[in-house]
Write a structure and sequence with these properties.
mainly alpha, about 75% helix, enzyme inhibitor activity, PME_Inhibitor, signal, Invertase/methylesterase_inhib, Pectinesterase_inhib_dom
């Protein structure tokens, strides 16, 4: 599944990192205010969500794609750093390698979330199915957050510092923050989706 999802998502990579000056729609802003990092939410979504969109589904899906791209980008960076440290037999190698393993797991969890989100969007799914899908996505995204914390904690006690350490921490932290925002936006979509299905079924 990762091989099927990532090529499509990686097409967004360049645009995702060039977002300054983009116009943020009122609806995107209102949705991002529900997240823990609203400014980051708005800057990362501004150029990818239709300015006229009023669809929390679209916003949640774009946020998830952003999280995947950020995680893949960080994973690839860790591969480069890890390889260099191994060649130099640096004692920080194991910590970076462990972080790389955590980030690889994060990419898998995010890919699983993307697949499950497609089920959540399906109108033919029952309320029970939707709740099951939502629980899976919440679990996987929460695992990503745990992975990022384990990664950064793994560097405690190592003298590694300077630009390399700052870059690793900044990128891993960014993955954690966009994923936290994604989780909030997905939860918002799920709530609205359940309410919409409730009224469309004629229940009171």
């Amino acid at each position: 599944m990762e091989k099927l999802v990532l090529p499509l998502v990686l097409l967004l990579t360049i645009a995702i990192f060039v977002v300054e000056g983009a116009i943020v729609s009122t609806f995107v802003e209102s949705q991002c205010k529900r997240t823990r990092y609203p400014d980051l939410c708005m800057s990362s979504l501004a150029t990818h969500v239709n300015p006229t969109s009023q669809d929390p589904q679209e916003i949640a899906q774009v946020a998830l794609k952003v999280s995947i791209v950020k995680a893949v980008y960080t994973k690839n960076y860790l591969k480069i750093v890890s390889k260099a440290l191994k060649q130099n037999k640096a004692k920080e190698y194991q910590a970076v390698k462990d972080c790389l393993d955590q980030m690889s797991d994060s990419v898998s969890q995010l890919t699983n979330s993307f697949k499950e989100f497609q089920h959540m969007k399906s109108a033919e799914y029952s309320a029970g199915d939707l709740a099951w899908c939502q629980n899976n996505v919440q679990t996987w995204l929460s695992t990503v957050l745990t992975d990022t914390y384990i990664c950064t904690d793994g560097f405690n006690g190592y003298p590694m510092g300077g630009k390399a350490m700052a870059m690793i921490k900044a990128r891993v932290l960014n993955v954690a923050q966009v994923t936290s925002n994604t989780l909030a936006l997905l939860n918002e979509f799920a709530v609205r989706h359940r309410v919409s299905r409730h009224f469309s079924s004629g229940k009171n």
